[in-house]
Write a structure and sequence with these properties.
mainly alpha, 6 helices
Length: 171
């Protein structure tokens, strides 16, 4: 259990660092289309969900490979954590901007950090409890569907608020 806890904390740090770097990667690569599939291509909330999803997915695969024999429920727990962490981004953002009427940079950063911490904390607790193990196939399928959605909607975003860059004003 000590190793799992240590890897969970390292995971939080890994996702915080790689997610932060991923925010800039598309621009750093000269707007490379491949990089844009996995990192934000604009300031939309949808694109910022990638900052949690892809780094946590990568780290989760490492944790699953390392711990699947010792913790049989780690796949379902981490899949759930990926989904929760990813969807907390718009939940927190739209909640606080609804009440404040505007976005605030420090609250955006706090949303990112809190989403990651909650995702890994839930993953840790659910790995130990095995509550979600019966739903493991469904959770894995949902992660795969979200993965595909990121790829598709990066190239063909629907015309809804979550996909719109809030820094671009419409007349």
């Amino acid at each position: 259990m000590k190793h799992l806890k240590r890897y969970t904390v390292i995971g939080i740090i890994f996702v915080l660092i790689t997610g932060t770097l991923a925010h800039f990667l598309y621009g750093w690569t000269g707007n490379n289309h491949i990089a844009g599939l996995f990192t934000p291509i604009n300031e939309s909330i949808w694109e910022h969900m990638k900052l949690v999803f892809f780094p946590m997915l990568i780290y989760s695969l490492i944790m699953i490979l390392k711990f699947h024999r010792k913790y049989s429920c780690i796949t379902s727990a981490l899949s759930f954590g990926i989904l929760v962490g990813t969807f907390l981004i718009p939940l927190f953002y739209y909640t606080y901007t609804f009440f404040l009427g505007t976005n605030i940079f420090i609250l955006d950063i706090s949303t990112f950090i809190l989403s990651i911490v909650i995702a890994f904390w839930l993953s840790y607790k659910l790995t130990l409890s095995c509550r979600l193990e019966p739903y493991s196939p469904l959770l894995c399928i949902l992660v795969c569907i979200l993965f595909v959605c990121f790829l598709i909607f990066t190239c063909h975003p629907p015309n809804t608020t979550i996909f719109q860059d809030p820094t671009i004003r419409k007349n």
